[in-house]
Model the fold of this input.
Amino acid sequence: MRKALIVCGSSRMNGVTDTMCKAAADVLEGLGYTPVIAYATDDIGHCRDCGLCEDGICAIDDAMSPIYAEFSEAELLVLATPIHFSGPSSLIKTVIDRFQPYWFARDMPHPSRMVGLMCAGSDRPEFRHTAGVFRAFAAMLGMEWLGHLEVSGTDKTHEAGVDERVRGFLDGVLGSGSARRSSRTRRRTSSPGCR
Done:
């Protein structure tokens, strides 16, 4: 089976982002992947920009090590984050920054494709900054960017309907019988009456 790595960038267990990740794991398993959910935590230190990773190995030995191991075996990467002040959570951004070894050693094994899952409490959040960060990360490693899902209004709706939204999005970009969407795919979903 193909492996998919899902990185949850929220510290809130059983919140909307975590619900999205668990829904993604269920969908991906049905699509023939072996999904692994990794949680970004405060136990992952910030990149020190020390340059010691030029050989492809990060000098920091912490909770990022298991993520590196799963990343090297995965075919698909799913990054999930709540939107904080129009950007990604600090947890998911720390994880992205820790992939600095891949800047120097781009031939190391890594996923060939990537998607993003984003949620925000506001009815009218700004997702484009986070989408830009995710797309730039995919481009840096040569991963095919398949698109991202935007779920807004979660302060009112919480995780209601999130499973179905994740399923529809992933089936749309990965499903066997569906047409492949362009590399600029974006699907907005919000609570009724929201933009």
User: Anything to note?
Assistant: The helical segments are 16-30, 65-73, 90-97, 100-104, 128-141, 154-157, 162-174. The beta strands are 2-8, 33-39, 76-84, 87-88, 113-119, 144-151, 186-189.
